[in-house]
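Entry for the shared binder. Reason: the reviewer on the internal report wants the predicted structure included alongside the sequence.
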Amino acid sequence: MSGLRPVVADEQLEVLRMCVDRRASLGREHTRKVSRLHKLLLELIPGGAKRSLSAARAKGLLRKVRPATAAGRVRKAHAAELVSDLATIYARSQAADKELKALVKATGTTLLDLQRIGPSGAARLLAEVGDITRFPDRNHFASWNGSAPIDASSGDQPATGSPARATDRSTGGTAAQVGVTSHEASVPVGGAVTTRTLSIGLRRPPRLCRRRP
């Protein structure tokens, strides 16, 4: 069929996608284990631990715990196991970040020079966007990544809740972070993504949910 772009496999971007997916998986696993550890510490220590909990801090708290019951001793053993798992996940995450940074730099992109974007965000953008010339203009790109303004309510059209977007939330979130720093950032990128102005199309920073007091 005429008018269709040929699909070209890019091994470099495939490697980026696999590595960034693994880094995201490590982050989710870290969150799950921290939540389980908080639950156990709450049962072992009055008031539990502070919200910001590292493996080293949890290990120090467990040293002071002397359970008097069998159930308490099992809880402490399980908590110690989680602390060990967290230390391992942290080491793997650091190695994954280092690997991603090297892979992103190898593409020739300058995305890492932007504020608010790290190796994972840059790798996600490169892997998901692919050949940016497939977007006719910046407005199409902003619509695809979910950062374009939505006509939520105009004239006789009432606003009904939060409009849904058919977009990749991870890519859109990264694009929004870049857009907060620079509305139109000239970002020459390499690999399958050609040199082009990365224009996010944000008219204002995204609204963030605020916790109630």
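Summary line for the report: Helices lie at 11-44, 55-63, 70-106, 119-129, 138-145, 169-181.
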